[in-house]
Structure formats: structure tokens, C-alpha cells
Amino acid sequence: MSNRQAMRIIKEAERKILDETGIKMALCIDAGHIENVQTLLNPFLESWNVSMYRIQSEDTFRPLVLMRYILALYLRKVECLKFKVIATILNRDMTTLISGMDSLHGWLITGDEMTLKYYNKVKHLFDEQV
Known about the structure:
The protein has 130 residues and is mostly helical. It has one domain (31-129): DnaA protein, C-terminal DNA-binding domain (Chromosomal Replication Initiator Protein Dnaa, Chain: A, Orthogonal Bundle). The protein has helices at residues 3-21, 37-48, 52-56, 62-77, 83-90, 94-110, 113-129.
């Protein structure tokens, strides 16, 4: 089962719980159960010639920061993962990821040269999955 299929089931369960109990719940896929994360991210890592170890490191080298935000965007928008799960995968806190994804959006809109350098190498991966 793909993460997208699982997220559809989770969303349906959330709606059913709300309809039947009046309680709004947020269910998510636990990071420990995502068996194919490395497989999902390998095309990105290969395009950038970087390891997952480097992505998860504390390094604040701007290209690594951009790569993390691009991966977060992909995991959120294409794979439909919750921020908590993405934060665990990328070894970051949710606030950093949310703020970073907002910054990434702005950099893409304004055509930031370094952002486009890394995004353009992998933007086809977003389109292939949609």
C-alpha cells in the first residue's frame, strides 16, 4: 500500500470519527512504519549526489538546507505525510520545516538562483508522482 492510499484511508477515518462522535482527530502514519522512505528519497539524493546521513545532519550549509526543504515539500505535498513524520525523517522539528517550506516557496517564486539549481534537478519527481 502506498502512503497516498494510506492517507486516503486515514482521512476517511478522521471524517467518520468526526461524523459519528463529533470529535475532531488527527491521525497520521508513524515514521517507524514507513518502510519505503529511503526508496522514495533515493532519486533526490542521487540527483544531488548527497547521502541521507548528510541530509539528517546538523549541517547548516545552504545547499543542504535547501535539499531538506525540497524533500519536506515532496513528502508533504506528494506523499501526504504529516509534519511530525517528516520532521522525524529529516531529523528536524516541525516549526523549522514549516518555516523552511514557506521560505522555499518564496525563493522559488522570486527565482533564487541557488534554490532553482537544486529544485530544477528534481522537479520532474514531483510531476511523476502527481
